[in-house]
């Protein structure tokens, strides 16, 4: 006599005789809501071909966010400062055809004066650091800002050369901001700003034949050095116009960029 398996359908008690009850399956798992994009770091594609030959200075690590603190400098190209920068950039590009503009978009220059080195935050450190930047910004007053002369700079691995303009009036106030940011940077074990900073805005860049050039970037045009006399010619033709009162600006806010998001606080505007 063969053994019967368990019934396919269970029956209720005699009071409900004849009523069939469907067998219960395993309980359904509830789907968790998706994580906010604020908590998810998207892995960027490190492809120099998408970025005019530029390469990432530090490899991407999940949960780590690139961060940069700066004072924005904005001027329409029709204004005195913007016009000078545009004419100077065109003059330099005529001598360095591979020079690319920085911050020039739709008739205006959107530049920045760095207050931190390239910095990296873990996800749990972001709010604490943003609050520290906010406290620094709101406890310092705005001031008049001027640019004085053109200079050449390079990044740390000498893979790019920059055409920059040095800050004149406002240097002491900028140094006060970087000094106030130092404890927050040390708290997250990041390097503080340079001990003798050259506060500046960068208006152009070109790939350089430095140690940062790799096989992935070798197909992009590079320069060994800015041609002799470019900086001297720019200062001769444009520096005096930079220093006119009509080209001066007001430093009004401090920004921190975390990933792709920018957070802003007005200087001296309290909490």
From TrEMBL:
GO BP term (any one): U6 snRNA 3'-end processing
Signal peptide positions on this chain: none
Single GO term (MF): lyase activity
Keyword Cell membrane: no
UniProt entry keywords in alphabetical sequence: Hydrolase, Lyase, Nuclease, Nucleus
Region described as Disordered: spans on this chain: 1-34
GO cellular component labels: nucleus
Gene3D superfamilies reported in the protein's UniProt record: Cyclic phosphodiesterase
Compositionally biased spans, kind Acidic residues: 13-23
UniProt cross-references to PANTHER family, sorted A to Z: U6 SNRNA PHOSPHODIESTERASE 1
Name of the protein: U6 snRNA phosphodiesterase 1
């Amino acid at each position: 006599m063969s053994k019967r398996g368990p019934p396919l359908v269970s029956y209720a008690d005699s009071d409900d005789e004849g009523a069939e009850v469907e067998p219960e399956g395993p309980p359904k798992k509830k789907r968790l809501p998706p994580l906010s994009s604020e908590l998810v770091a998207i892995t960027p594609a490190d492809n120099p071909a998408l970025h005019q030959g530029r390469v990432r200075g530090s490899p991407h690590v999940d949960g780590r966010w690139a961060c940069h603190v700066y004072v924005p400098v904005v001027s329409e190209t029709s204004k005195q400062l913007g016009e000078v920068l545009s004419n100077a950039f065109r003059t330099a590009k005529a001598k360095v055809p591979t020079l690319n503009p920085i911050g020039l978009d739709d008739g205006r220059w959107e530049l920045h004066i760095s207050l931190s080195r390239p910095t990296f935050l873990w996800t749990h450190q972001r709010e604490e650091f943003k609050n520290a930047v906010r406290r620094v910004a709101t406890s310092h007053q705005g001031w008049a800002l001027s640019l004085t002369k053109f200079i050449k700079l390079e990044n740390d691995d000498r893979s790019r050369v920059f055409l920059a303009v040095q800050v004149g009036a406002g240097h002491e106030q900028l140094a006060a901001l970087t000094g106030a940011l130092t404890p927050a940077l040390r708290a997250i074990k990041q390097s503080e700003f340079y001990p003798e900073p050259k506060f500046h805005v960068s208006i152009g860049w070109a790939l350089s034949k430095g140690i940062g050039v790799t096989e992935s970037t070798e197909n992009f045009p590079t320069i060994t050095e800015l041609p002799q006399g470019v900086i001297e010619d720019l200062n001769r033709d444009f520096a005096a116009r930079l220093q006119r009162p009509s080209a001066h600006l007001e430093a009004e806010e401090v920004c921190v960029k975390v990933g792709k998001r920018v957070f802003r606080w007005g200087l001296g505007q309290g909490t």
